[in-house]
Amino acid sequence: MSSMTMTMFAPHIWGYDLASAQAKIALQAGWSRSDLIWEHLMEAAAKAHAQGQGARAKRLTRRAHWLARLRFAANDPRRVTGMINLALLSTGSARAKHLQSAANLWPRSVTPAIASMQIAPRSRSSLFHLRMETRHRDTFHDNMRTRFTKFADETAQTISALQAGDPAPHRHYSRWRGEKPVVYDDTRKVLAACLLIFDA
What we know:
The protein is mostly helical. The protein is built from 10 helices and no strands. It has one domain.
């Protein structure tokens, strides 16, 4: 699908307006149309799941999962998010297959993604805070990578628990709403991979 076609038909097919002001900000920041649509689909799927709309959650998750498979790199951690959510919507061998795929890909995808994250400057409440972030940029970035590694570790623990037939030990989607970065950079992609996972 060409960029022009995706822009024209996105509201109809995907339920997302790529001509919106927010979308334009994201595109100017370097995000692709696929990045935006995937996040929108996964947010909508998680919301539907939280509201007990299982069929809608499954339909949206499948769309996001196939978009990730077609448009994202083979080691993009967001591909794992779809696997986990499909597992949570499945039973038997299908559930086991999705979880095994997620367990195999997660460490090989999220670790290099965190290491190579391009981190955009955060808006600060004062010039002082902005100057401090600029002056101590390396420390700020190291601390952020450490924090994101903890999110990734929690996702790995959730995958392991689900494989063992246990409840997920961490909340994910309910935390996304408070943790979602306001900037469109790699941190938002990685955090989405970790947190756009259905809660029990």
